[in-house]
Design brief:
263 residues, alpha/beta, 7-stranded mixed β-sheet, 13 helices, binds adenosine-5'-triphosphate, binds magnesium ion
């Protein structure tokens, strides 16, 4: 009975922004771990050839037999590449540098935008949340992630030029809705690396709220040294330093997201 309810509620969230270094991977890893700590079953999918999410949960890439790349090219089902992370309830579909070949190799493939959606089909209902960490581009991998997702979460770095490029991102979301994935929603806009002492952070928040109103998450992720350190230990912040401001903020985000889903 409970299983039936959980299947119904499975949510796939794509974490995307074509700007580099805005906190996509930090958000993917730490939101995924926070949701897992709240007893949700979570699959983190590393859609970026940089493979920072894979490293960020402590996976030894050299030891992997199959990765997302193999699933996408039809060489292995997703379930064969999925591995359990050190975090209870959190699994990962890992990546490695070979994923960078995907865009070129698939250029003539019919239905190339829906390959990730097809790969996730048989496994996604085993999880309450599937979190897709995107690369800093609007190319085929990100389009696959948007085509496979129920919603998109956009991290916005609290800095000058933060909103620049957002128009292009939203235009891409509209195009994907029209062609590949009509039900795609915006889960929300997340302010990252926030520093409330600076006028700039507050200005970016004000601009974002003026433009996007309720779409902006109430939770803001502070700039926090511990969040920057955690990946080099292969640990989500929740395990690296649970008492840190960064850890508390990602827990708050997970709760806000669950509340939104239930409301
Ligand atoms: P890319 O576009 O390259 O994939 P990204 O958008 O995934 O980058 P991250 O890798 O999450 O961005 O973050 C960029 C850098 O900033 C990393 O070194 C990360 O550890 C650091 N960082 C991210 N969020 C915070 C934060 N809230 N406080 C301090 N450092 C942070
Ligand atoms: Mg990243």
């Amino acid at each position: 009975m409970f299983y039936g309810i959980r299947r119904f509620m499975s949510q796939t969230i794509c974490i995307a922004n074509q700007k580099g270094g805005v906190g996509k991977t930090t958000t993917s890893v730490n939101l995924a771990a926070a949701l897992a700590s709240l007893a949700r079953k979570v699959l983190l999918v590393d859609c970026d050839p940089q493979a920072n999410a894979t490293t960020g949960v402590g996976v030894d890439k050299a030891g992997l037999e199959k990765t997302l790349y193999h699933a996408l090219i039809g060489d292995a089902p997703a379930a064969r590449a999925v591995i359990q992370t050190p975090v209870k309830n959190l699994s990962i579909l890992p990546s490695r540098v070979e994923l960078s070949g995907f865009e070129v190799e698939m250029v003539d493939e019919p239905g190339k935008e829906k390959l990730l959606s097809a790969v996730l089909g048989p496994v996604r209902n085993d999880y309450d949340y599937v979190i897709l960490d995107c690369p800093p581009s609007l190319t085929l991998l990100t389009i696959n992630a948007m085509a496979a997702a129920d919603s998109i979460l956009i991290p916005l770095q609290s800095e000058f030029y933060a909103l620049e490029g957002l128009g292009q991102l939203l235009q891409t979301v509209r195009r994907i809705k029209q062609s590949l994935n009509p039900p795609l929603k915006i889960a929300g806009i997340l302010l990252t690396m926030f520093d409330q002492r600076t006028n700039l952070s507050n200005q970016v928040t004000e601009d974002a709220e003026n433009h996007f109103a309720d779409l902006v998450f109430k939770t803001r992720i502070p700039r926090n040294v511990r969040l920057g350190e955690a990946p080099s230990f292969g640990l989500p912040i929740l395990l690296y330093d649970p008492a840190s401001a960064g850890s508390k903020s990602y827990m708050a985000l997970a709760k806000e997201l669950i509340k939104k889903d239930q409301g």
